[in-house]
Amino acid sequence: MSTHTYEPHQPMVELRNVNKQFGAFHALKDICFQVERGEKVIVCGPSGSGKSTMIRCINRLEKHDGGQILVEGIELNDEVRSLAAVRQEVGMVFQQFNLFPHMTVLENLMLAPMRVRKTSKQEARDVAMQYLRRVRIAEKADRYPAQLSGGQQQRVAIARALCMKPKTLLFDEPTSALDPEMISEVLDVIAELARDGMTMICVTHEMGFARQVADKMVFMDHGEIVEVAPTAEFFAAPSTERAKLFLSQILSH
Amino acid sequence: MFSWFRSLALLLPLSLLLSGCGGTYTWGWYVISPNLEKGRENLLFLVSGLGHTVAVALCAITLSVVVGLLVSLAVLSPNRFLRGFGRAYVEVLRSVPMLVMVLWVYYGLPIVFNLSPSAFTAGVLALALCDSAFQAEIFRAGIQSIDRGQHEAADALGLNYLDKFRYIIMPQAILRVLPPLGNQFVYMLKTSSLLSVIGLTELTRRANELITTEYRPLEVYSFLVLEYLALILLASWLVRRLERRMSARDGARPYSADAVGAAKPA
Amino acid sequence: MTSMQGATAAMTTKRSRPALGWLDWLLLVMVASAASYTVSRVNTVLHYKWDWGVVASYLLKTDPETGHWVPNVLLEGLFTTIRLSVWGILLAALVGLVMGMARCSDRLFPRLVSGAYVLLVRNVPPLVFVFIVVFFVGSQVLPMLGLSSAMDRASPTVQYWVSIFFAPAQQIENFVAGLVCLAFFTGAYVTEIVRAGIQSVPTSQIEAGRSLGLSRLQIMRLIVLPQALRNVLPPLAGQFIQMIKDSSLVSLVSVQELTFVAQEIQVSTQKVFEVLLFAGGLYFIICYSLSLLFAFLEHRS
């Protein structure tokens, strides 16, 4: 914990030569990149490029095999306390929402603040309602997740992550499991959070959305970071052939 | 339910027909005829075993659920020794015949622990021991059937191991475990008949006792079958009703309660 | 993303486990204390003298005439259990297959007969079923068929082979009665498994067969059953292992299999532990090797 210092220019999230293998499959190869405070980073790339694995390593849903991952200067390793500290600071939104089906929307939101942050029930409820209003779904507070549409569930999942007041939010393909007509309601909410200054790392195929919110684009292929570039630059003139090919394929429809 | 009644309606004349083919046997239903004093006495005697049958099954299932849950936690534990112990416990106890277990507990315990359990205690212990291996598998299957995303979401929110189990995994697993648990109870009701061997006066023992005095095995056994049919059909009906009520209450939830319905006494 | 996730799912099925929690320590302590308590009771308090020689002497004996080693009662009991199991599995599979097909029949009568059969057997304790079948088949039907007397009249060669594959002449009636109970008892469960297996094959497969002009029996034999077999193998394995354990029940009607013999030895020698532990161990070996065999079959198909 001695590394936990607040230097003025300390990156929010930093990956140094991160490697990850699944058996013989090399999922991440020497990944290096930084995310500054308040920065919005969009990670894109073809299927199987390691985007999700990378983002899941950042709050240790996957363990990396080599290199270092630092979140606000805290290194992620086997130590339980640093992991707990990191998970309180980093929220995650999943592709499949992963709401708890046996709890109402409100209970889903109140559980972690009460059990992990030890806030009072009243406070947890107030915070929960505040974020539910923010994602425009306050009227569904007492419903069960299965009674909501996919888009509504994902907005609840975003509110659940926000209730822990994280400094960074990770999005793992937040709209991939949604019907097309629900994608925009979720993206609007995320874009709004982005405008409010939340630090974000988002894996997505929605290039229009990326162009709108991202400060920086990260393009991955075969487990490597192929290109990191400011958003405008990336879309105007990608510097690598692979990124060009990817963009032409994904933008052609 | 309705097709059962139709089956029964067919079954009874069929069995009478078959028994007639035996030819040499003359029926003597008078032993359990409700019209005769002696018959009524015998009927009451037969039914008097019901209490022990139900009580032994209830006690045994309670004990085996507790033991089975602990064993399933051992099987899922991060510790290698505990995991090994849990697997060995399940594998060994699953393959020991219930009858051998009953004999072992009843004749073995007095020697090891210098306590002579009553037939009831020994019976509860033996049934619970054998059944706990199946309960452990049921709980393990229930816990493991919870989607990986639920673990991940709980982890990502920073919940610790215990809170994750208490608030996220167990409440969902319990619902999936209930139906096979109910089936297991019905199975216990049936298996408790084995305890007649060590002299527990339950339904089967009563029937055997009556046979030794009345020499009317087929009549008494036929009645015994009816007793068990009634008891077990009633129990499984209750179990299913409970199940339906549970799933009605949780109708809003996106999973079906019989997700691990396949887990059963192998 | 799918291939990536496939790889992820495949590789991480063994979820990374957290460090030991208090629950694990609690369980460890419970296991350790239960084990040490048992050991201390057995060893120090009661000075129980283990005598595994008893088991050995009942396993093998020397033939007084030829001086060769021959199996003694315990080993004979094991063989009887194995014979009961093998024949029982075959017969139960046959009964289950026929009844399972009847259960899926379009006609009412086969459905009712098999339905009644399953209903009766599954809702009656195994032991009661054993008593009934043995009293009915054993004491009424078999004497009528004259099985025992036919065996007495048979030539020594026939008697020899029958005793190898089934049972010695004087025990044949008991053996057959026990076998019938086991087969028909297990058969009811197999019936349900077969029915579930047949119903797991999509109707479109049957329609495809019909459109090719196959007969109903051909559709069953060539299309439905082969596909159903793959689905029923795991539950079938469990059921057959259960049957081997249930075979101990026929000891109560004097079929001289493993449990029967073990109990006789236990009564005559008072060596409860050695004998019953040994018998339990034998059951474990049989059941476990069968489950390994089925795991292998399942893996291959």
From TrEMBL, chain A:
InterPro entries for the chain: AAA+_ATPase, ABC_ATPase_HisP-typ, ABC_transporter-like_ATP-bd, ABC_transporter-like_CS, MetN_ABC_transporter-like, P-loop_NTPase
Keyword ATP-binding: yes
Keywords (A to Z) from UniProt: ATP-binding, Nucleotide-binding, Transport
A molecular-function term among this protein's GO annotations: ABC-type amino acid transporter activity
SMART domains the record matches: AAA
Signal peptide location: none
CDD domains: ABC_HisP_GlnQ
Tagged with keyword Nucleotide-binding: yes
Residue ranges of every copy of the ABC transporter domain listed in the record: 13-247
Cited PROSITE patterns: ABC_TRANSPORTER_1, ABC_TRANSPORTER_2
Family affiliation: Belongs to the ABC transporter superfamily.
Name the UniProt record assigns to this protein: ABC-type polar amino acid transport system ATPase subunit
Biological source species: Aminobacter aganoensis
Automatic annotation (TrEMBL), chain B:
Membrane protein topology class: Multi-pass membrane protein
Highest rank taxon of the organism: Bacteria
Keywords, alphabetical: Amino-acid transport, Cell membrane, Membrane, Transmembrane, Transmembrane helix, Transport
Main location: membrane
GO CC, any one term: ATP-binding cassette (ABC) transporter complex
Matching InterPro entries: AA_ABC_transptr_permease_3TM, ArtM/GltK/GlnP/TcyL/YhdX-like, MetI-like, MetI-like_sf
Transmembrane segments: 46-76, 88-107, 220-239
Molecular-function GO term, any one: transmembrane transporter activity
Domain ABC transmembrane type-1, residue spans: 50-239
Gene Ontology BP annotations: amino acid transport
Protein's cellular compartments: Cell inner membrane; Cell membrane
Function per UniProt: Part of the binding-protein-dependent transport system for glutamine; probably responsible for the translocation of the substrate across the membrane. Part of the ABC transporter complex GltIJKL involved in glutamate and aspartate uptake. Probably responsible for the translocation of the substrate across the membrane.
Oligomeric and partner information: The complex is composed of two ATP-binding proteins (GltL), two transmembrane proteins (GltJ and GltK) and a solute-binding protein (GltI).
PANTHER family given in the database record: GLUTAMINE TRANSPORT SYSTEM PERMEASE PROTEIN GLNP, MEMBRANE COMPONENT OF AMINO ACID ABC TRANSPORTER
Family of the protein in this entry: Belongs to the binding-protein-dependent transport system permease family. HisMQ subfamily.
Protein name, UniProt field: Glutamate/aspartate import permease protein GltK
TrEMBL record, chain C:
GO biological-process terms attached to the record: amino acid transport; transmembrane transport
Keywords recorded for this protein, A-Z: Amino-acid transport, Membrane, Transmembrane, Transmembrane helix, Transport
Main location group: membrane
Pfam families (alphabetical): BPD_transp_1
InterPro entries named in the record: ArtM/GltK/GlnP/TcyL/YhdX-like, MetI-like, MetI-like_sf
Gene3D superfamilies recorded: MetI-like
Cross-referenced SUPFAM superfamilies: MetI-like (SSF161098)
Entry function: Part of the binding-protein-dependent transport system for glutamine; probably responsible for the translocation of the substrate across the membrane.
Protein name: Polar amino acid transport system permease protein
Organism placement in taxonomy: Bacteria, Pseudomonadati, Pseudomonadota, Alphaproteobacteria, Hyphomicrobiales
